[in-house]
Specification:
By secondary structure, the chain is mainly alpha-helical. It contains three helices and two strands, in the order βααβα. The radius of gyration is 12 Å and the shape is globular.
Length: 73
Amino acid sequence: MHGPNYNIEDRYLNDSLLWVSRETGRELTFRSESARKSATSTRIHGTIDGLSASKSLKHVLETTDLRLVDSPE
């Protein structure tokens, strides 16, 4: 199922991550302060048109140094 269209062009990565967390019901947390700072200062570009929130997360993270960790260690 596809969520509502979300425009990622020139948004901060953190904004996209927050959207995905709302759409999927997952909590957004960062393992380090440097990861949080990276997400709040990195601008992303492109499109996720036609992708579900979960698929868009994978697509967007592939362009960054951050990675998805499903649960705390």
